[in-house]
Design a protein that fits this description.
Number of domains: 1
Helix content: 25-40%
Number of strands: 8
Shape: globular
Structural class: alpha/beta
Distance between the termini: 48 Å
Amino acid sequence: MGPGFVRAQEELPSLFDLGVSPSRAAVVVLPVPWEVSTSFRQGTAEAPLAVLRASVQVDLYDPWLGSPEVHGMAMLPVPEQVPRWNAQAREALTRGDTATVDRLAANRDALLEQLTSQLLAQDKCPVVLGGEHGASLGAIRAAAGREPLGLLQVDAHADLRPQYQGLESSHASFAARALELPGVTRLVQVGVRDLCRQEAQRAADDPRICTFYDAKRPAWRLEQVIDALPKRVWISWDIDGLQPALCPNTGTPVPGGLSWPEALTLLRLLVESGRVIVGCDLCEVVPEGGKRPPGQGWDEIVAAQLLYRLCGWMLVSRGIHRPDPLPAEESATDADSETGT
């Protein structure tokens, strides 16, 4: 991959065991193991490589999508600057130097903006795999700089604090920072169920924000979430937007959230509405740790499954892939023949 990337990753498996190089892949994943401002449980910096390892377990046929992997999906190595800046930021935070932490986060954002701009210029579909929430800001800035977009945030938290614990780059301020990016015209939040009064007031006062609170279900439907979005959409998916049973080790778990069928239906309906997914990110995954080797825990397995659907539906929305599921009766026949019945 040239200078500037961590060489040790060359021994890791390829994404979804496809063996496709990033130069030939339609979808390119940018791993960002950034974990500085996490305020409860730790471990999300280990997620990108754990999810990569778990991805080899994902069977690649989907009943709605068919086989989108044929267009190629690959993960870049971790940019070597990111772990170094992350370590420096963590050390700065221990001595209360929040200005240095925010400066290093700005360096991260500039690098991700550059890398994402390169991918978009090559007509590739960019995905950021964190890391804590906020690691994708540079990538969103690159996408929104090309043409205005709406941000679909699936999250247990509003992330609308102006700052948190003295940090403007805190994971609790992701949405607030995203709304400052030129070109981000709309923020639609779904699954939110843990926030402070200040965040709720911001959501109520800002006409660009539409928040679908988990506590108010079933008063709203997934179709209403999609109707609130513009044509071009970046999906920012915090894994804790799902029910905790699907991500028990995430850093800040909250009761409630989207079920697995609801999550998949949200993606399908979004694309079937004619909206275009210009990019996405998946963050706040914490590998199980301790009990199993990295990549074999439940959290990273769920994340790998979700990552595959995000990639697949983005390809459909961009007109690169046409869903080609088998008819139900054909699927049943094939299953019978495989089992010899």
